[in-house]
Amino acid sequence: MPNALYNGTAMLLATLSSSKLKLPAFVLQIVVRFPDGSRRTFVYDGNLNQYTPVSGTAVDSDGNLIPENARMFAGLPPAQINQYRFPSPNYNFQNFMFLGNSWGVAMNPTVTVGRTVTCASKPTGIICNGK
Q1: Domain check: are 36 and 78 in the same one?
Q2: Residue 53: is its pLDDT beyond 90?
Q3: pLDDT (tens digit, 9 = 90+) per residue, 11-50?
Q4: Could you tell me whether strands 116-122 and 39-45 are parallel, antiparallel, or unpaired per DSSP bridges?
């Protein structure tokens, strides 16, 4: 049933957008769920005919926020601290470490798989520790 709804909506939007009919302003919020269980929210603007990702809505298959910049390791502002859990060695942990290192986030040696990782915003920058 959901596929029929999505297909029907897509066909309707395609028909309306290709016609000479002027549509009123509309915006759709769409949550994309990936096969591994991760998800991301997008907004579709019917007037511009474009999709835009919604900041702070990307979540990995372990349920962790996927940071989009160094500041987001400590959570979505105004939060100053955020926790991540990587129960098993997988690409979520590898991606987390890669992003953190790329953006200069300080990773304490205690940050390992199987531990809760806490990242906090400090005056010296973002620091992550494992517990």
Answers
A1: no
A2: yes
A3: 666 666 665 656 567 788 999 999 999 999 999 988 888 8
A4: unpaired
